[in-house]
Design goal:
This protein has 127 residues and is mainly alpha-helical. It folds into 2 domains: 75 residues, no CATH class; 47 residues, no CATH class. Helices cover 62% and strands 0% of the residues. It contains 4 helices and no strands. The radius of gyration is 19 Å and the shape is elongated. The N and C termini lie far apart (40 Å). The mean pLDDT is 79.
């Protein structure tokens, strides 16, 4: 991966430290791409005057607060474990997403398929 120094100096560039994926896409890469696209949409909307200064600042503030919200979500690990036990006997799952949330639904479905595959592999190895 090239360092930031390898690119010409320009204040409108987006480099993200996400290594290339070989074989399968990753949630990390997907999330990074969605974040960069959101940042580009905010910036373009602001530059074109579609997004007001106050709303632009609100959007950026929300984007910056995401890591804290993720930390808070990870604190409920015990509740998630209870839910996982409840859903572990389910044989089907349906992910719904409309509009700009459609790719998120696809990513969720892919993640579920990958984790199911890993669990099956672990079960076979334990035999």
């Amino acid at each position: 991966m090239l360092s930031a120094a390898a690119y010409p100096r320009n204040r409108r560039r987006s480099l993200y430290p996400c290594r290339p994926e070989i074989g399968v896409a990753s949630t990390k890469a997907f999330t990074t791409q969605v974040t960069v696209l959101a940042m580009m949409a905010f910036e373009i909307g602001h530059l074109k005057g579609i997004v007001s200064d106050s709303y632009y600042k609100e959007l950026i503030t929300e984007l910056v607060s995401i890591p804290g919200k993720i930390e808070k979500a990870l604190e409920i690990n015990d509740k998630a474990l209870e839910l996982s036990k409840f859903f572990s006997n389910c044989h089907n799952a349906l992910y719904l997403g409309r509009g700009y949330l459609f790719p998120v639904a696809l990513e969720g479905a892919l993640s579920l398929k990958k984790s199911h595959t890993y669990m099956q592999k672990d079960i076979r190895q334990q035999r």
